[in-house]
Amino acid sequence: MKIRLRVLGLAFLGVWVAGFAVANPKPAPDPAVRAPVLEAQYAPPAEAVEAHVLGRGETLSEVLTRAALGGPDLSSLVLAVREQVDPRRLLPNTSILVRRWTESGSPRTVEVSLNADSTVRLSRNSVGWTGQMVVTPTVVDTVYLAAVLGEGGSIYQAVLDHPGVELPRKERESLVWQLAHIYGWKLDFSRDIRSGDSFRVVYQREARPDGTSRASRVLVAEIVNQNTSLPAVFYDAHGDGGDYYDEKGRSLRLQFRRYPVAYPRITSNFNWRRYHPVLKRTRPHLGTDYGTGYGAPILTTADGVVSFAAWDGGYGNLVKIDHGNGYETRYAHLSRFQKGLRRGTRVKQGETIGYSGATGLATAPHLHYEFRRFGEPVDPRTVRLPAAPPVPRSQMEDFRLLTEQRAILLSAASLPQPEGPLRADALLAADALLEADALSTN
Ligand SMILES: [Zn+2]
Fold it and tell me: How far is ligand 1, taken at its centre, from the CA of residue 349, in Å?
């Protein structure tokens, strides 16, 4: 599903620079609000609502039958659902609301909630059932935060306590998590942050009427850590969802993730002289072992091309990935490969390439991970890892222009803040920029 929202700029000299999504017109005013007031009368509710939940392994037809919508209604209902969504792809615990006329007990509408944003609403007319996809409207907000950390202060607490912004607590936590992720290779929030450090963030989000986000993104941020400025500008250089760069277009990430599993637990380190438990002799251990249990997803540590995915002696089921510039990673003892993975498959960093096991020379399920440079095994935990690719030279002009605009946005989240968090002039400039720059979600 691809929704693109165009944003009309609309500045408030308060907290928000808010834009309204033109794609979602305002709801019509409720006629009841303007109708003349009548004497209160007792009237039984016109409809009764029943809630049903799709059980694990249950089909939509089964739930509908259980809800007394079998018989002639059933095929028409299922057909109407199928026009909007494949009923076989409904997840367990999908909620299905049936509204009936109280008088006759006959069904009026059926609502199938696909997720927080989308509901299939089915209604009955004289010929049968028709379906409609109802999508929750959203507005695009741009939120500015800035703070100087005092003694014992943390970015987490400063974002959580930030005055003057209307963000639910969950959103604030998710924003800190996003920041920690963006700066993950440069800073450890729990260790490196000092009193006197500061941060500024411009955060854009698509908000639902209940205040939760459908999508959100840090557009630009700056952390000043022990007098060193660390800017982060979001830019989509490769058309693959974008990344964060410093003001010179250098990636904030390293090319390789540190760990090939989600919950790393190292059971054996890189070691030129190790006693091998299966071979019962000293043999160099040219990789790192991660205790994983059986069937844990194995994640590639960098973008690359699969150069090998097959059985290889003591390695058991082995995947090798070529990352260019002489870098190669190996993932051994897998119980199975990811479906469709073969020599020549392109993989993205963090993609699941297989599942842990104990194939080949292994006494228990674990992942044996190797990192090689020009064929030479090196310890990935001590080697100096290369940075992820910078903004390509051909896009530097575009990136420089964006960075200038982002710097203006950032100045709207200015420090210090004697009368509120925003400066009017900076806000107006920021607003003009945002008009041309809508958040798009995929
Ligand atoms: Zn090993």
Answer: 22
Query: Ligand 1 centre from 362 Cα, in Å?
Result: 8
> What separation in Å is there between the alpha carbon of 299 and the centre of ligand 1?
16
Residue 199 CA to ligand 1 centre (angstroms)? 42
Q: In what order do the strands lie in the sheet with 228-235?
A: 7-8, 16-21, 139-148, 198-207, 213-225, 228-235, 243-245
pLDDT values of the chain reduced to their tens digit, one per residue, 442 residues: 333 333 322 222 222 223 333 334 444 444 444 444 445 556 666 788 899 999 988 999 999 999 988 888 899 999 999 999 998 888 888 999 999 988 888 899 999 998 878 899 999 888 889 999 988 787 888 889 999 998 888 999 999 999 888 888 989 999 999 998 899 888 888 788 899 999 999 999 888 877 778 788 999 999 999 999 999 999 998 887 889 999 999 999 888 988 899 888 888 888 877 777 666 777 788 899 999 989 999 999 999 999 999 999 999 999 999 999 899 999 999 999 999 999 999 999 899 999 999 999 998 999 999 999 999 999 877 888 888 889 999 999 999 999 999 998 888 886 544 444 445 555 556 665 665 454 443 3
- Distance CA(23)–CA(6), nearest Å, equals 7
Q: How far is the CA of 367 from the centre of ligand 1 (A)?
A: 7
How far, in Å, from the CA of 311 to the mean position of ligand 1? 16
The domains found in the chain, sorted by start residue, are 47-135 (3.10.450.350), 139-253+394-441 (3.10.450.350), 266-378 (2.70.70.10)
